[in-house]
Design a protein that fits this description.
Blueprint lengths: L5 E9 L5 E5 L2 E5 L7 E9 L4 E10 L25 H18 L22 E8 L5 E6 L6 E3 L8 H16 L14 E8 L6 E7 L7 H11 L3 E8 L11 E6 L3 E6 L2 E6 L8 H14 L7 E5 L5 H6 L5 E6 L2 H13 L5 E5 L2 H10 L6 E4 L8 H10 L3 E6 L2 H12 L3 E9 L9 E8 L1
Parallel strand pairs: 3-5, 10-11, 15-16, 15-18, 16-17, 18-19
Antiparallel strand pairs: 1-2, 1-4, 2-3, 4-5, 6-7, 6-9, 7-8, 9-10, 11-12, 13-14, 19-21, 20-21
Length: about 450
């Protein structure tokens, strides 16, 4: 097989990122947009030592789970991976992905529950950040980067972003054109506006708008702020974030409040939260309530339990747990997040929680040394999972249950394999579709001593 050759192949599986896997003459090809069981005509577009990359030319035998993508830029945009799969197909893909990771990486054969899908999987993202640039015609555009490039695919209406953000970003682009405000050029390091970012409270309907700029000042910014706040009453704060860096880090360190207090509020499982620009807050407000409710239900909690919430962020899980147990310790290494968490506890008049800025693993051992036994530990780490050091501390703390929530099931399974060597086992596994139409999954496991 050579580059530009054609062949008829059958898709035998799908990769972790939703690509079709085709075996042909003993060689593996990855083909975008192909679904398990489909047969189609494929063009070889790249040949590497261990695998090839193919382009699907036509489908001879389509899957029963195939649907026409609703998005007109789906083929080029890197934001969604599974829009050609219907809801049932996405559920099967995500459930299988978790099962494969549990077995192949985690060496755990727990029964994996069907992935919990969102009833209406559109316009769900409460946080939006879009780059600004020029297209080949020299027109100012907002949209999304084409996969593995710095080229922006223009799009004013994303089907997975909330509608308020779509409208506000489009209006900001129009005002930038009106006032001749240039976008930042990554190559030349000229221009000014790098990204437009919004956050929206699902229950409060409050919106935060952020201009991420390369320079200290934005021409005509007061006129723009006045116009936007007049047109969009839901905008409660506007921030300028200044980022003079030349890398891919989106947010800078300096913030200027152009309008409002610099934060918005929203509600999650009955508790009110103050959300600042750099606060971590789950991007799907409907499914996060499903996720947290299932995670809390997975733990057999009592009013006498003492619980640790590791990687607690601004305290969303900690405060959600508080009504079910005697005491919750929330631990987070990021000082600003702990400040927000303490404030959120005060806002909600919750007094059986304690927030600590520290390494979660080391703090666990400090509690053990004080003869404070942890009944349950909740763990919701970043995508990279838990460090070996943290897991060693967790083993020493010896809680009766560990509830491990993860946005990367592969690193979660890796950590499970390590814990199993010390007598722990997974007794419950529930995927939740927090990110419809993408290949990403949130997964809950309960881990107990065997």
């Amino acid at each position: 097989m050579k580059k530009n050759d054609y062949f008829i192949g059958e898709c035998v599986d799908m990769s972790h990122d939703g690509k079709g896997i085709v075996k042909y003459e003993g060689f593996t090809y990855f083909v975008n947009g192909m679904i398990t069981g489909e047969v189609g005509k494929i063009k070889c577009i790249k040949m590497l030592k261990n695998y090839g990359v193919g382009r699907l030319i036509e489908i001879n035998e389509p899957s029963i789970y195939r649907q026409a993508p609703r998005c007109h830029i789906y083929q080029g945009c890197g934001g969604c991976h599974l829009m050609h799969l219907n809801q049932t197909g996405q559920q099967l893909f995500k459930t299988k992905r978790v099962k494969d990771c549990m077995e192949r990486i985690g060496h755990s054969y727990v029964e994996v529950q069907d992935c919990l899908m969102q009833d209406d999987p559109w316009y769900y993202r409460n946080k939006v950040q879009v780059p600004v640039g020029y297209n080949q015609k020299g027109e100012l555009v907002t949209g999304f980067y084409k996969q593995r490039t710095n080229d922006i695919i223009a799009n004013d209406h994303c089907l997975i972003q909330n509608n308020d953000s779509n409208k506000i970003v489009k209006r900001v682009k129009e005002l930038m054109i009106q006032y001749q405000i240039e976008p930042y050029d990554k190559v030349k390091h000229t221009g000014n506006i790098k990204h437009i970012l919004t956050k929206k409270g699902f229950y409060s309907q409050e919106v935060m708008l952020v201009f991420i700029s390369y320079r200290q000042t934005i021409p005509h910014i007061q006129e723009i702020v006045d116009q936007l706040t007049k047109e969009f009453q839901q905008i409660k704060t506007i921030i300028q974030n200044i980022n003079p860096r030349h890398d891919n880090v989106i947010l800078g360190d300096q913030e200027i409040y152009l309008y409002g207090p610099g934060y918005i509020y929203d509600t999650l499982l009955g508790n009110k939260y103050k959300i600042s620009l750099k606060s971590f807050y789950q991007i799907n407000p409907i499914q996060v309530e499903v996720l947290y409710s299932k995670a809390i239900a997975a733990a057999t909690l009592s009013k006498e339990d003492v619980v640790l919430d590791a990687y607690c962020g601004i305290g969303t899980i900690t405060l959600s747990l508080s009504q079910h147990v005697k005491k919750v310790y929330g631990v987070e290494i990021v000082e600003a997040a702990i400040k927000d968490a303490k404030n959120n506890a005060l806002i909600n008049h919750i007094d059986n929680v304690e927030f600590i800025c520290d390494d979660a693993g080391k703090y666990m051992i400090d509690l053990v040394k004080q003869d404070i036994h942890l009944d349950v530990v909740f763990v919701d780490p970043p995508r990279k999972g838990c460090s070996k050091e943290f897991l060693d501390y967790l083993i020493k703390a010896n809680p009766k249950q560990i509830i491990y929530i993860s946005c990367d099931v592969a690193t979660q399974a890796r950590d499970i394999a390590y814990l199993q060597d010390f007598g722990f086992q997974v007794t419950y596994c529930q995927p939740v579709d927090m990110f419809p139409h993408t290949s990403h999954i949130e997964n809950i496991v309960r881990i107990e001593k065997a």
